[in-house]
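Late entry, written up from scratch paper. The run itself happened at the end of the previous shift, but nothing got recorded in the book at the time, so transcribing now.
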Amino acid sequence: FTVVTGVSGSGKSTLAFDIVFGEGQRRYLESLNAYAFNPAVFDDMAGTEAEFTTAEYGQIDTDESSPTEFYTLDNNLSKRLRFTYQISEAEASVTQIDASVRVKSESAVDHSFWIFNDTAGWEQLGTTSTTAGTWQVLSGSITANLADYIDVNGEIDTLLFVADPGGPVRFVEVDYAKVDVGTLMSPGTVTSPVIDYNDFPGTSTNWGSLQWNDVETTGSILYRLRYYDDTTADGDGVSNTWEYIPDTYLTGNAAGFGTSGVGLSSLDPATNTFLQRIKLEATLTESGGSPTLNDWTVSVAASTDTTPPTITAIETADLNSDGFIDAMHIIFDEAIDDDTVFATDFAIAGASNLTFSSTTNGDTADDSDIYITFE
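Output as recorded:
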């Protein structure tokens, strides 16, 4: 063995622990393949430096214009910069871990990026890069056995290893280091805008059905309907809230529907006026993936009466009060849609320029009588 002697303060410790040890470590590291290196091996060696940074999940600093972190390299030794991230996502819901670091050194030096696996130890992400005064991004993704990379405290550890170049590297700059975690979609709800029965055509007689198109191979979706309870007509004593339509009016709504084609005729909005305004609600639940709602539709039932209205009376009229007939007043046995009336549907012998207007002579739109004026 070797003994170093000298008076107090002569530099014995510096010689033994810094110069001799540092040179020995440098030569040893040069003999290693970068991919075979495991930073954990050197955790307890004197002289190596470990910088620990605890950051919020997602990033430390991704703004390249922000001040970078400078780390000096002492005694030509390698340097390890370790970053710990605390994630809030449940371990079981994590589907991918993406980690990266942006680094620059003063002169040519090998950089490698690692992530800690609780089972296998440190694993290298991506390839080793050699830079000389230029920014380099080292990155990698984990898509399998993700629980091995998240410890019991919900933490993920990455490490940047800067190898000893055997020369006077003065500093290493780290612009940012970050971890992005991909997760399954959390259970949630999607709600439609208000659907008002009164916005449908006047021929509507009832609500029709609820139809939808979705993908549930990697999860499930349940559908329910809500109504705006602006009265106490439903008997629950609560008003001015959006509530689930009770099973009394729509059987199965409380549990939710899983099969498209839900009949809504039991709502009977003509009788149950509080069911004239509704909303659709879909509850999406993950199950190994994310279900997808493509579209949904509510229809109404319309009158199937195809019998045309019958003319019950035809009267002449002198609208200008000039002693000449200038209009025909036609009366039907039921109200008609003025949009279906055209002057060209009528022929009056000896008359020209036939015109129809729902406001002629104070006529009311869509009632049971019309006026056809002419010259």
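The helical segments are 12-30.
(Scratch paper discarded after transcription.)
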